[in-house]
Design brief:
The complex is a heterodimer of chains A (336) and B (83).
Chain A (H helix, E strand, L loop, with lengths): L1 H5 L2 H10 L1 E6 H4 L10 H16 L5 H5 L4 E5 L5 E5 L6 H17 L9 H6 L8 E11 L14 E8 H10 L7 E2 L2 H11 L16 E14 L2 E15 L6 E15 L4 E14 L11 E10 L2 H5 L9 H8 L10
Antiparallel strand pairs in A: 2-3, 4-5, 4-11, 6-7, 7-8, 8-9, 9-10, 10-11
Chain B lengths: L5 H20 L3 H10 L17 H11 L3 E6 L8
The chains are: A alpha+beta (336), B mainly alpha (83).
Chain lengths: 336, 83
Amino acid sequence: MSRALINDPKLNRYIAANFVPVAASIERLQPSRYGGDESDSSRWFGRVAERAFAEFAPPGWWDTFQTYQGFYVVGHDGAVFDYKVAWGLEPDDMTDALAEASTQYRRHPPRRVVISDHVVRQAEHVLPKSVAGALRVFNRVTTETRSDTDAHNGIGRDHAWIYREDVIAILDAGRQIRQRFDLPAALVARLVRFHLLDHARNVSEDFDADQVQKAQFRARCIAVEGDLATFSVQGTYRSEGRTQEDGEAFGVVGTIDLRFVLDRSTKRVARFRGYGRATAWGQTGNGAPPGRYGVEFALVDVDDAISAAVPPFYAGLNPAAAALYRTPTVDAAPGR
Amino acid sequence: MHRPDWRTTTSALLATALAIGAAAQRAPRDLEEHVRRVLPSKAEARWLEIPWQTNLMRARQLSQQQRKPMFIWLMDGHVLGCT
């Protein structure tokens, strides 16, 4: 919903021209919510949020939801000029609110503060050295099962990481051209538990190891040119669980084709394309279509500032989740 | 023991490498087309044209230097990643 709002061209231009725009996550700025570690940024923002909720939040908002999410207009010293809950806003209303907040900012300019380069460097997020390739994962509900509801016409997004040990294992197993082998178990588990999920409306629940009934991803090296080795993968999977919120059964069963190029000298992903089709069900509390519906997935390699700064959702929750994200397992045996 | 002529061998290897290389560069056309269909359209990605800062402390520095307030968009799941 918020993305549809920010996609409005007029509001989009207004924000770019009149503000320093900041995109962030609860995981980083309210880490207590998911058991993450505090940082200079989260401690500073916690004080901002307290002021914002005291002055601008709807009555009862904090007591009900206990989340910092929303839109803020803030001075560099932490003074708050507006806060809006992210839901149900129209572009014109948002533009008017931002204009009023800008006026207040000019009337009450923030005091000068020292923000050292050291503090800035400490707050920088970079791609971990263990990551050999970042992917952007998208999903949509297929047109055949999409309804008129806007929620079904959205696009799910996340980043995915392929680690150096995944690349080394693939290169080792795929030394013989056209010889089939199983994709490394941790990479398969990472894909089926955390990425082949329908995020089109909101963050979907992921699957536990014992909720994956099938995860068979067969790979082969199909070409080598110099240091570049091209691999083709066909995967089939089936997962089913129950939502934490209301115990509703949800699941996904599908197939996926991957084609990627690995650099044998750098042990990095040079190129990655993936496309999958699946049937999903459940999570109607999250606005999913009723019954069984079609989902499409696309995975592409990415190497930009955003992918370097923003981790996959699950990996960004807290240190324990990040460790599990790197070496997940599934109970389903290979080949099942 | 017969030893192949190195020039013949090198030419053959080069030709093979070029052919394999050409194949390696292309994903099957239908895979590329399927992927393209799922990717966001320009209209769906307009919000990414905004020069978002991901480092809150750098944003504070910029805010002070440029004398502009920060517009902070905060969601469960990173706004530029998964929400």
